[in-house]
Amino acid sequence: MSDPFRIDGQRALVTGANTGIGQAAAIGLAERGAHVLAAGRSSCADTVALIEEAGGSAEAFAMDLADPATGAARLAEAGPLDILVNNAGIIRRADAQDFAEDDWDAVLDVNLKAVFLLCQGFARQALARGAGGRIVNIASLLSFQGGIRVPAYTASKHGVAGLTKALANEWAGKGINVNAVAPGYIATNNTTALREDPVRAGEILGRIPAGRWGDPADIAGAVAFLCTPASGYVTGAVLNVDGGWLAR
Question: Is residue 3 part of a domain?
């Protein structure tokens, strides 16, 4: 009997795979047998090296999503894909009354518009081949909450959750499962400012039932599950991986 948690021979593209959650997700998929295209604006050479050192298969794939249309157009050069993980994202912090329009546009472009265009391109390719596939979008706790001083990020991540459900409705019957993972407070570059603020860091940690900040590897397992046959009847879901934050 085949292992439903294996994805041997499948090809997966992970955006923002140079560090943090994206890097961990890329490694997790490779551990389960996928050939991973580690995509990013910055070099993903370290991620590829980690995968290959562990006996996995990977390659770096340059993709800058600051210009969503140009970045998404690169998908055509990636070859046939079975899995797409939309992890790349940015955050800008400022009081809402002072939030710059340029910052708003930059965040929405990378975090939402690029996600849609990549999902669209992936689905077009899969449907043209008569194949199915798996899409996992990285949402956030701020897909459900308002946050503080991050209006654009919050809007974008609410959008990711809604987009995930909308695409799942359209594509589930065509063999493409679309889901999202909503990380809690994870120790990554995006949370450096919070972790370096002793007051805010203490407030956050005090609310997490698990009693610790998450690690990118905590997210990688959830992403991998949603890419395997074990989750074949899961679509349109937004899976919280937050140490219990939203249950509090």
Answer: no
Bridge partners of 37, per DSSP, are 13, 59
Structure letter (DSSP) for residue 60: E
Q: Could you confirm whether 153 is annotated as catalytic? A: yes
Q: Tally the domains of the chain.
A: 1
Within a domain: 169: yes
Q: Which position among 153, 185, 213, 245 bears the catalytic label? A: 153
Q: Which residues pair with 137 in a beta bridge?
A: 86, 180
The answer as to whether 37 is a domain residue is yes
Global pTM value: 0.97
The vertex-76 CA angle with 74 and 80, nearest 5°, equals 125
pLDDT digits (tens, 9 = 90+) for 87-130: 999 999 999 999 999 999 999 999 999 999 999 999 999 999 99
Q: Which residues contact 171 (CB under 8 A, 6 or more apart)?
A: 123, 177, 178
CA angle 183, 163, 248 (to 5 degrees): 35
Alpha helices in the chain (DSSP H): 20-31, 45-53, 68-73, 101-108, 114-129, 151-171, 192-195, 198-207, 216-226
CATH number for the domain spanning 138: value is 3.40.50.720
Query: Does residue 247 belong to any structural domain of this protein?
Result: no
